[in-house]
Amino acid sequence: MEAQTKIEISDAEWEVMRVAWTLGNVTSSQVAEIMADKMGWKTATVKTLLGRLVKKGALRAEKNGRAFNYYPMVEEQPSMDEAVGTLFGHLCQMRVGQTLVDLVNQTELSQTDIAALQAVLAEKAKDAPEMVECDCVPGTRC
Amino acid sequence: MEAQTKIEISDAEWEVMRVAWTLGNVTSSQVAEIMADKMGWKTATVKTLLGRLVKKGALRAEKNGRAFNYYPMVEEQPSMDEAVGTLFGHLCQMRVGQTLVDLVNQTELSQTDIAALQAVLAEKAKDAPEMVECDCVPGTRC
DNA sequence: TTTTTGCGTTTACGGTTGTAAACTACAGTT
DNA sequence: AACTGTAGTTTACAACCGTAAACGCAAAAA
User: What is the rounded distance in angstroms from the CA atom of residue A76 to the CA atom of residue B50?
Assistant: First the structure.
């Protein structure tokens, strides 16, 4: 069977997925109302995005009377992990550390999040290298 | 004076910028060779990308004899920070913590990077909230 | 000087994205 | 039964992207 190809979610589509994930399932009018409020989008725009997400397989449309209910077909956390992983893949590996520092600085994290991060870091510290090599240009360090 | 509009760097363009940042300044043939090797791109593709980056103002082309030398006009770290910030802005704030944990897990970090992160986290822990609110749907928590 | 080669510029072309209006069809209202 | 919403579908459309080939020109080689 066809292994579901990598689903690419665009910036605008992310916003729609967020509410779908949060609410579990949504109707287009529901999303439209939320998006008008949060993003200033017209109803038509939301319809387009929902349609594209269904076509991509990120959402499933299940008929419910006259309309449809949309259900997320991909999970939130893995989707986020993958998007983030892709972006970081384009960055110089040597700079990832600093980028994370900057990111943490400008992000709001809960006590629990911080504790979890500290735990992973402590674990990682056990056998982390002294230096990470730059891989921007084969055979060069920046 | 025109405040330089936000420069958007696409995925393919990132790869070109990386080598420009690493080498300080580059010629198109240099980039072409590296990209043929690293990405399998044709020379023509690299030329297009260099041209687009110059037009966007991410690179500057300075004539050097028959050819040009391309210099980065934007800094690496701020560019990365901004790209990462934009992506995280599309994610549910409640999930950012876990996403960072997953990211750290799949990333190679140096001892120095880890120490820096631990320092920022320790600082942040001092007045981090117990919980971070979900902001996917106004007035709802997931 | 004629030829070749390397470099920047123009043109190409199908896809994706953001943003939305227009159109169609059915259900609930009058 | 006619009318009016509402929901989904089609069409639009310019900008951006990935990926290049084609073109024109000047410098280097023959």
Answer: 36
Residues 41-100 of chain A whose Cβ lies under 8 A from any Cβ of chain B: 76-77, 80-81, 83-85, 87-88, 90-93, 95-100
Interface test with B, best of A94, A121, A131 (most B CBs within 10 A): A121
Q: How does pLDDT run across A2-41, given as a tens digit for each residue? A: 456 789 999 999 999 999 999 999 999 999 999 999 999 9
CA B17 centroid distance within chain? 9
H or E element in which residue A113 lies: helix A111-125
Closest CA of chain A from B66, distance in Å: 25
- pTM equals 0.91
Measured CA to CA, the distance from residue B97 to residue B108 in angstroms comes to 18
Q: Name the strand (E) or helix (H) holding A67.
A: strand A67-72
What SS3 class is residue A92?
coil
The Å distance, CA of A47 to C1' of C29, is 25
Q: Residue B108 is encoded by which pair of tokens?
A: 């190679």
